[in-house]
Amino acid sequence: MAIDRLPPLNAIRAFEAAARLGSYVAASEALHVTQPAIGRHVKNLEGWLGVRLLERSPRGVTLTLPGAHYYQAVSQALQIVADASARLAGQDNQRWLRILCVPAFASRWLTPRIDSLRKLRPDLKIAIEPNASFTAVDARQADLGIAYGLPGELSGVREVLLRPAVFAVCSPGFLAQLPGPLTVADLPANKLIHVDDGTWWNSWFAANGLLVRVKSDASHMSNDIVLNLAERGHGIALATEVLVKRELEQGTLVRCLDQAVPLESYQVLTPPQAPSEDALWFINWLQSSLREAFPQARVESARVLP
How far apart are CA 61 and CA 126, in angstroms? Predict the structure, then answer.
């Protein structure tokens, strides 16, 4: 597409903020504009694209399936622009560590620790690029990646970090509306929030001995979006303690039932080239920090893979 055929940047920023934060009100506060302005920008973008991106409700906004795919692309593009701008605005002799990372892990675990991490190595600049779908790392794009997947799905695996248990969560208000204690067999009939076409929920059901097939009517692409929706009472989502430890402690999310099973693992991916000293330092910090924070999570490998 030619540059002159790009949609308006303000409309893109308004859509990205509304989708990420789940409401026009939150987006208007983040971008320091009025709520009607956010609505106009999103409407203009939908008109420009010829497709509906967001569905509004009294509880906020949710992504349509085309909107979820578009959100993934534009959020990555905006992050790339931000990172490139930051690098150019800095000094030529600054050292950068570029990290690809699955979005929910980036926003819910890694980003809150960046300030303390930088204090350990203040001369190192860190750029985090959320990416929900990468399966390998190109050295031109990043120095390393933090992915979530099954063995054999990912290329260039250097270290398997944790294989945390997966369990069902929802808001306290949503749980209070349900009749009586839930069982695994009760969940398919309830409002499930999906990160994909239903595959993750079906894998979880199978691991708990329930052979059912559920399908999603909306795929939200990122666990961060799914868990934000669960916090606002939109339904039941799957989570790991890595992603929702704070929310469980604060009571904004609760576990729906006791069953928890490990599925995929968090894994560090590196390019074919030998990792830099900064990348190796970060991997060691990441490994020790995760295992200290979640000592009960299953460790698949404690050694560096060839």
Answer: 32
Locate 96 and state its tokens: 């950068």
**pLDDT tens, 41-81?**
999 999 999 999 999 888 888 999 999 999 988 888 887 88
For residue 60, the cross-strand partners are 57
DSSP secondary structure letters along 262-303? E--EEEEE--SSPPPHHHHHHHHHHHHHHHHH-TTSBPS--S
Do the Cβ atoms of 234 and 193 come closer than 8 Å? yes
Which pair of tokens denotes residue 3? 């540059």
Contacts for 122 with CB less than 8 Å, ≥ 6 apart:
none
CA neighbours closer than 13 Å in the CB half-sphere of residue 161:
26
Taken as a whole, the chain contains a residue count of 306
State how far the Cα of 18 lies from the Cα of 6, in Å rounded to an integer: 20
Helices (H), 6-64: 9-21, 24-31, 35-49
- 299 band by pLDDT with thresholds 50, 70 and 90: low
Three-state DSSP at 63 gives strand
Tens-digit pLDDT profile for residues 240-297:
999 999 999 999 999 999 999 999 999 999 998 888 899 999 999 999 899 888 887 6
pTM above 0.70, yes or no: no
Residues 6+ positions from 56 with CB-CB distance below 8 Å: 24
Helical spans, DSSP H, in 193-268: 199-207, 223-231, 241-250
H or E stretch including 77?
Answer: helix 65-89
